[in-house]
Amino acid sequence: MTLRSRLLTVAAAATIALGVSAPIAQASPTDELGFTGGAAFLTLDDATLNNELGAGREIGASWVRVVVNWASIETTPGVFDWGNTDRVINAARAQGYSVLAVLGGTPGWAQGGIASPLPGAVPLDAGTFGTFAGAAAAHLGDRVDSYEVWNEPNIPTFFAPVDAVRYTSLLRAAYPAIHNADPGATVLSAGLATTMNVGAWTVAPVTFLQQMYAAGAGGFVDAVALHPYTFPFTVENDPNGQWAQVDQAYGTMVANGDGGKKIWITELGAPTGNSPMAVTEDAQAAIIGSSLSKASSLPYIGPVFVHSLRDSGLDPADAEQNYGLLRFDFSHKPAFDVVRGS
Question: How far is Cα 57 from Cα 289, in angstroms, rounded to an integer?
Answer without folding.
Answer: 18
